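agent: user wants the full assembly modeled, not chains individually. Plan: 1) parse entity lines 2) check alphabet per entity 3) run joint structure prediction 4) return tokens. Steps 1-2 passed, two entities, 740 residues total. Proceeding.
--- entities ---
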Amino acid sequence: MAADEGVMWVEKYRPKTLNEVVDLKDIVESLKSFVRTPKVMPHLLLAGLPGTGKTTVALCIARELFGQNWRTFTLELNASDERGIDTVRDRVKDFSRYSRAAFGNVPFALIILDESDQMTGAAQTALRRIMETSSRTSRFILICNQSGKIIEPIQSRCAIFRFSKLDHKAMVDHLCCIAKKENVTLTPEAAERIVDFSEGDLRHAINALQTASSYKDGVVDEKTVLLVVGEASPIQVQLMIRKALYGDFIEARKMMYDLIGSFGFSGSEIVRQMQRELFKMSDLTPEKKADLSNIIGEYDYRLTQGANSDIQLSALLAQFAKVGKTQGENS
Amino acid sequence: MREELLWVEKYRPKKIADVIGNEEAKAAFVEWLKNKRRSKKAILLYGPPGVGKTTLVNAAGNEFGFRVIEMNASDTRSEKAITKTAGPATSFIALDTFSSESKGNILFMDEVDGIAGNEDRGGVSTILRIVEESQIPVIMAANDPDLQKLRPLKKVSALVRFYQVRIPLIIAMLQKICQKEHVKAEFEALERIAENSRGDVRSAINDLQSLAETTKTLTLQDTIVLSARNKDVSMDETLRSYFSAESLLEAAMLLSRSSVDYDDLLMAVGDNLPLRYTDPSDLAKAYDYVSQADMYRGRIGVENWHLLRNFFNSLSQAAGVSPQSYKPFALISPPIRVITLFWTKGRRTMLEAVCGKIGQRCHVSRATAKEDFVPYIKALLTKKKADAIVSWLELQPEEVEFLTKMNRL
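--- prediction returned ---
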């Protein structure tokens, strides 16, 4: 399996034990005590930004509890893929039914439910019931970005751990460590660049490092990093913003529909990417960025209120086109 | 005799035998009408529109010499109104019998399922009373007899059911009309009109007349507009009058009266807005209103229909942002979203499948795989050592090709 996982570095260098986890000392210490005495382990809720190690920690717990056999005793579900609580319920039921529970001194099987804040309130209520009925045989590790989106009754049944953005230096060190093992020369500036760009998201950083290393044999310098960042940026989204600011609404809308159609992005995903890409556009003044960012924020809210995301996205682009026009008149 | 403009009226059968289709229903009705000791004083004819219910009653009156006193949905049918029209007719029967021509009156209440709740207050109960007190036969016709409010009427009436008229009968009828109107028509064209009518003779004749208005030789080609007309005209018309509305009130009234689905309407307005407003400020303002309308739609959900007024108000504001700039324009239809999703379905499913494979391997959801992995994997695939990734993710050759050629995300 080790050779098998060597392809994507994110997987290859995903920590196998809690000790190897980057920069989460406090969390790791308390989790270790659960692993030592599994009987007292409650349900866990891991909350935090993407790429900060939540899934990794969950998988580490599984490995440390069940050793080599962890896959047999662990059910990994992703709430944003398993649409509807029924699939979740069925799979959890099936899983706990065959009494795979009780391995060594571990009196339960483990269910890891990733992106659980994607579930609707109703689905979460059903989940709460499942957690109760199967609590004798299974423990849940719920993973989410925002713990606020998890209903209170579930939160109260879980021990909550919050993952903050990873420390800058720890990330740089980790990248250097990986580069060393892969026999890649990573210049310090390049490492800084990657970490800056990935905004505390280690998954992004490692993916960027791996991609950069494939450009030039054995060396990753600042230039290749910039190249990769450019290549891997959602160009489509930036182009759409530019078209809109240029006042070409119809063309911008066409690109919006391309994002929806060809890439299957949802309205909120597009808005989030716009927000992210906006700040990478170097030709806009900070004031302009702030104005546009405000507009995006407003329509991000409207998306949650409205019924039709196409309408809200179009309205957002129309606002951009208006801003672009007034800007053109001033200069 | 005055010339009827509408063929439906011009060729309305005068004799029972000329009413096409529904032979059983016709026989049952005639028997009820002839029978002096009928067990039920009223009869309810029910069935889909345009199959000959009204025609049959009038033809029967004609043939048997009854005078038909008719009330239909265009009259208000409150308690007062019904008593006023029907009351004398039902009680003063004796006077009429002296006249040599008429054998008496029959009261005919057409479209009884159209009796509305508010304006026609007490309507159903009054009809019921008239049926009970009446000395003369009462005939009622309805499309949908299952309505709760008609239940009391059904209890006191004999029921006769009408079905859709069979297509060949309609074709024959259309052929007869064409002959008399000197219209040359392909058989296939008439067949299509008849099929399109779904057994509704009235609409078939109306369609024939409107088609024959433009050409005296009717071909199958000419009938292509038919199905489109039934569905799309109302959306197109709604949009057209919406964008050209001269006041807010006009736009709002029009929207609330249109039978178009609200969600379709919202989407169609959104699609067409940039064609209506070319100035970015106008467009932004208009979209802002539409966006607000959409938020109301979101709040309406499935139950808060009282908010519908706000939805219409916001939506009509969008039509009046700059009245002076209005120029007619070609509408976009069908919806952009539907078309986009149709043409890109293959690409989308392919991408979803790839993301599913990545998700399996890297412990992430498809959505995360799409945003965090696909851009990098795409870049990696074009470089050396790509084979390892391909086999690890178990990508098919066409998926690799798709990824490398994909638009830059």
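agent: reporting back. Residues 168-232 of chain A form a domain with the Helicase, Ruva Protein; domain 3 fold (CATH 1.10.8.60). The mean pLDDT of chain A is 84.
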